[in-house]
Specification:
This protein has four helices and no strands. It is mainly α. The protein has one domain. It is elongated and about 65 Å long.
Length: 180
């Protein structure tokens, strides 16, 4: 009987995990579309008479575009993607979220730097493949697991004692509306 219950628990965990992955990817897609459009406008100046504000500074353009995307991502990640999870951060996880995003933003920026400075390609397709396909895939994988483990934790992870009857699974700073 314990094996059957264990398999049911495992099925529920995988279902919850798959839901989190799907919601995280949907939020990320929206934030990425906004960042992608802004990045390309800043670096390549589409439909602006060949004027691009940051054509010679693609790394800065990437940072600006993805900072805008990060604001969208935080709201969607906290309020929807990890809605069943809580945070024990006094600021709701905002500073940790920003820190993780800035740290992992180095991954696609590094890919862009490699493609432009080491390989020597600077056309729109090469920029987007290096930063927004290869780099973003690696960065989003890292973000998902870092957010899930360090910021938006499952309430059971807050247990500090083996005696659950005397331990409140949700810390006081995480009480209130989850997903808001």
């Amino acid at each position: 009987m314990d094996a059957a219950v264990s398999l049911l628990d495992m099925g529920e965990r995988w279902e919850r995990f798959a839901g989190e992955v799907g919601r995280f990817l949907a939020v990320g897609l929206l934030a990425t579309i906004v960042a992608l459009i802004l990045f390309n406008f800043l670096v390549h100046g589409f439909n602006t008479a060949n004027f691009a504000l940051l054509n010679d500074q693609p790394e800065l353009a990437y940072l600006i575009a993805n900072t805008v995307g990060m604001a969208i991502s935080f709201q969607g990640t906290k309020g929807w993607a990890f809605r069943e999870r809580v945070t024990n951060h006094p600021d709701g996880g905002l500073l940790a979220f920003i820190g993780i995003n800035l740290l992992t933003m180095l991954i696609p920026m590094g890919c862009l730097l490699i493609s432009r400075d080491l390989i020597g390609v600077d056309d729109p397709i090469s920029d987007n493949i290096s930063a927004n396909v290869i780099g973003l895939l690696m960065a989003n994988t890292a973000r998902f697991f870092l957010f899930r483990e360090l910021i938006f934790r499952h309430p059971d992870r807050f247990l500090t004692s083996t005696d659950e009857s005397t331990t409140d699974p949700v810390p006081p700073s995480a009480r209130g509306r989850v997903g808001g």
